[in-house]
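Chapter review. Work through the record for Hydrolase before attempting the end-of-chapter questions.
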Amino acid sequence: MDVLTVISPVFGARCSVLVAADGSCVVVDPGALVAPHVVALVRERALRPVAVLLTHGHVDHCWDAAEVGGALGVPVRVHAADAYRLADPFGTLGALGGRPHDPDGPLAQALRAAGADPTTYRVPTDVETFGSVGGGRDDELAPVPGWDLVARHAPGHTQGSTLYLVGPLVLTGDVLFAGTIGRTDLPGGDGDEMARTLREVVATLDPALVVVPGHGPTSDVATELATNPYLVGR
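Structure tokens for Hydrolase:
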């Protein structure tokens, strides 16, 4: 498994292009302004894209989902519990989102500072969901048919937050970072759900897995279990 990384200038969100041995690829979390770079990587390497995959529906992880999916001719796939967020990128972030035309909104400020127009967001039209809405936790899902990738539902940061296990990696989105965890105070966040996710999902992962978070440096599960203050003792 080869992993190509593009970092968005908006909140430093990580976009990963996962490349299988047969040349097929999955694009994970295409944030703002990554589309040209991602599309160029796919075309230069003659890769065969099969899906755009989202760890959750926060807009810093999906701003370019419509553009990447459209350019590559593949669907955008997201857990069903977070699909609603794609249609309202600012509102579903609460105070962090603000309004598209509000110069004081943190998201609008970050977009403008990076050279993106906050009024040009495109809602993905080719969206496929997996998992269920309000039906409890989903586990061991196959979010991309025919691809050797497993999803584990990990709510807490958002209702549909998902970990993706592929080869030696676990892509954790905003659930787990090196040394810390994702916030739970945004709309749809839940501290109790996050605690359960850490206990029942994260703490049961293979310690050898490399942690590829949605922001910041990589780590590994063993290190996080031993040193992350939110995981020690779980």
